[in-house]
Amino acid sequence: MRREHLLPTPEDTHALGRSLAEVLAPGDLVVLVGPLGAGKTALTQGIGAGLGVREPVTSPTFVISRVHRGGRVPLVHVDAYRLGGVADVDDLDLDASTDESVTVVEWGQGLVERLADEHLEVRLDRRDDDVRTAVLLPHGPGWEARLPPA
């Protein structure tokens, strides 16, 4: 079941992230899909805030992966844009931390889904009027019951 959200402002994107954080648990994988400027990092910032991360959550484009501790669950934030394939994902050794962390991967579609038995895909887009949209696509039976309402 897909759930769609309209996100007219960056604050709305953060609020959706905070709402998702309420249902996230260690071992969860969230895969963010969408073009540049669609709100992937803003959504992750909301997730970080909802998890209680105190440090700034910024795009890990150049470092590929950042771990944010200090919240109720560690947040692993990955930008897979520059990764060439599954072998590059393996080199990051993400599966070593997925069981005890929430892992959010920007640009990870087709690369990271095997890191968890189930995952949540969030498709973000920016319309011509600059309003963002988010479609939540659960992959696995556990996500259906946990998703926040649209």
TrEMBL record:
One of its GO terms (cellular component) is cytoplasm. InterPro entries: P-loop_NTPase, T6A_TsaE. It is found in: Cytoplasm. Its main location: cytoplasm. One of its GO terms (molecular function) is ATP binding. The keyword Metal-binding applies. Keywords: ATP-binding, Cytoplasm, Magnesium, Metal-binding, Nucleotide-binding, tRNA processing. PANTHER family: TRNA THREONYLCARBAMOYLADENOSINE BIOSYNTHESIS PROTEIN TSAE (PTHR33540). Belongs to the TsaE family. Required for the formation of a threonylcarbamoyl group on adenosine at position 37 (t(6)A37) in tRNAs that read codons beginning with adenine. Is involved in the transfer of the threonylcarbamoyl moiety of threonylcarbamoyl-AMP (TC-AMP) to the N6 group of A37, together with TsaD and TsaB. TsaE seems to play an indirect role in the t(6)A biosynthesis pathway, possibly in regulating the core enzymatic function of TsaD. This is tRNA threonylcarbamoyladenosine biosynthesis protein TsaE. It comes from uncultured Blastococcus sp.
